[in-house]
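Hey, can you fold this one?
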Amino acid sequence: MTTKSLQELVIDAQKILEQIRQHEEFKTLEYSPDVMIGDAIQALSELDLALFEKFIE
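Sure. Predicted structure:
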């Protein structure tokens, strides 16, 4: 079993969240969550940047 790095997992999660956001079934839902998918993607982007900055130190 190959273990992915944290950065690889973050990138995978971003891709999955984007697929969910673009999915037709998701677009037809009428709900008001406290946190939007875009917020989660942004949080993952910030985590990815932090990991990148740690890597280049």
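The chain has a mean pLDDT of 91. Let me know if you want another pass with a different chain boundary.
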